[in-house]
Write a structure and sequence with these properties.
Bound molecules: manganese (II) ion
CATH topology: Fumarylacetoacetate hydrolase, domain 2
Number of strands: 18
Strand content: 25-35%
CATH class: Alpha Beta
Shape: globular
Oligomer: single chain
Number of helices: 5
Structural class: alpha+beta
Order of helices and strands: EEEHEEEEEHEEHHEEEEHEEEE
Helix content: 10-25%
Largest sheet: 6 strands, mixed
Strand order of the largest sheet: 4-3-15-8-9-12
């Protein structure tokens, strides 16, 4: 037991780093809409500025992990996304300084209870139950960016070997530097924060037994399995 804590402290969630070590996760931010073709498939307006939501840090699932099919949904969907990992603290970060605040990048999957998300949206309620739940944030091993934000590269997701999503980072409506800059106006970014930067078109459902592979050209790939829910 540490200090005067009345319970053992929860473990800090981490993401493995390629080459060794582990990145401690403080918060997970996600961009709601960032590829035109996905906004159109969801019936949205492509002229709106980006908005952000969060997932709990302990929703992280590592490469090779298993995601139990969640409760309260019958439409559990995948969204492949570029993930940025913050390594330097800052608020109101200028676009030109954004790269210096990003330590690493990877590929992640924004898992979504789509039916619940859409029902919440229709009812004018928060998205939270559709987006922020246990095991909802698979993230591949982090790769240090060495001062160079990703700007292009194929981003893909396959289910059981079949291509479901394919886009390119060059299609991001709000580029990495703009996302970091805008998010840092709303929250002080701190080392340990992850940012999921939005998904291209082709989102779809998965079921227990499915094998999901996600990749970003030149950065990382990851795979997860979908399992039957625990009793
Ligand atoms: Mn998403």
């Amino acid at each position: 037991m540490i200090g005067n804590l009345v319970l053992d402290a929860p473990r800090i969630p981490t993401v493995p780093v390629r080459g060794g070590g582990a990145f401690p996760v403080r918060r997970i931010y996600c961009v709601g809409r960032n590829y035109t073709d996905h906004i159109l498939e969801m019936g949205g307006d492509t002229r709106e500025p980006p908005f952000f939501f969060q997932k709990p840090a302990d929703a992280i699932v590592h490469d090779g992990g298993v995601v139990p099919y969640p409760s309260c949904t019958s439409d559990f969907q995948h969204e492949v996304e570029l993930v940025l990992a913050i390594g330097r603290e800052g608020s109101n970060i200028a676009r030109a300084d954004a790269a210096a605040h990003v330590w690493a990048a990877s590929v992640g999957i924004d898992l979504t209870r789509r039916d619940v998300q859409i029902q919440a949206r229709k009812s004018g309620r928060p998205w939270e139950i559709g987006k922020s739940f246990d095991h909802s944030a698979p993230c591949g091993d982090l790769v240090p960016i060495n001062g160079q934000l990703p700007v292009r590269g194929a981003i893909e997701l396959r289910v059981n070997g079949q291509l479901r999503q394919r886009g390119d980072l060059a299609q991001l409506i709000w580029a990495c530097d703009e996302i970091v800059s805008q998010l840092s106006q709303q929250y002080r970014l701190v080392p340990g924060d992850l940012i999921y930067t939005g998904t291209p078109a082709g989102v779809g459902s998965v079921i227990p037994g499915d094998r999901v592979e996600a990749s970003i050209e030149g950065i990382a790939s990851m795979r997860i399995g979908i399992a039957v829910p625990p009793q």
